[in-house]
């Protein structure tokens, strides 16, 4: 939606009402309990619109607030946002300083007003290697966690600063420390427990903006679950609207309901949602065609597991062998007939 639309009187009120309405509609179907978001594209948006990079990051924070409001209206229990990567410290000192100042300003605003946290009962948790943060930023972040610690309706995990490899390293260290104090079994569940997101539900949906098809070291352990859907969106993060998130949630709900139940094979296939799908635009014939194709694939998979496909392939191979033998016999007979005919012609000519 164009930026000029937001200047109309009553736009904010209409947007809030719309998010509540669509949130109620989405909540009637399967809703992801835990959504992860890679908020990518702030710098490219700033360069494209010829504004300062810091303004792009500021607009990205406003987008995050709008998207989170819709998610919590829809019944999402936990949202994890990639706010700052450890690798971002390699950027220019000017940009890093601005990002830290932006974090202080925005979280101070949350501490003073906190409307989103108050209205939706959101508890904010800061995930990442906090030792890398300046003391003044860390103080404000801890204050935010303290203010919202009693909220129990939903959780906002802010990864700042964070990388998934650092998270897994931290989890393994905690597991090793625990084993020195008591005997515990080390398995996947143990590592899950000691990850930064150990208190949150399993990741159901991961969204990345900017049209980049990579995970950028974000929630790598969590997103490999067969029940996690991944959505790549072409829009830059400041351009990503609540309506775009509505379409993602509806596609997730449709796929989860259709493939997770109607397939009937007792499995939940990995849902990698195609951002070019026309399901939301009403082209259900295309969606049904894709569903039939998937169901056919599931049928072949089941046949493979039960050995039925092997028997069919063996029958087809036997039929092909019989056809080949028949063709060879026909060629041999024809060759003999040709030979006899040639001999008869030779005798008659004499």
Walk me through this protein's architecture:
This protein has 350 residues and is of the alpha/beta class. The chain has a domain at 34-259: 3-Layer(aba) Sandwich (Undecaprenyl pyrophosphate synthetase), CATH 3.40.1180. Helices cover 57% and strands 9% of the residues. The protein has 12 helices and 7 strands. It has a 7-stranded parallel sheet. α1 crosses α3 and α3 (53-73) runs parallel beside α4 (93-112). The chain is globular, with a radius of gyration of 30 Å. It starts with 10 loop residues before the first helix and ends with a helix. 28% of the residues are buried.
Set out the fold topology.
Layout: H1 11-26, E1 34-38, H2 42-48, H3 53-73, E2 78-82, H4 93-112, H5 115-120, E3 122-127, H6 135-148, E4 154-159, H7 164-181, H8 188-194, E5 205-208, H9 220-223, E6 229-232, H10 242-262, E7 272-273, H11 284-306, H12 308-349
Helix pairs in contact: 1-3, 1-10, 2-3, 3-4, 4-6, 7-8
Subcellular location: Endoplasmic reticulum membrane
Membrane topology: Peripheral membrane protein
Main location: endoplasmic reticulum
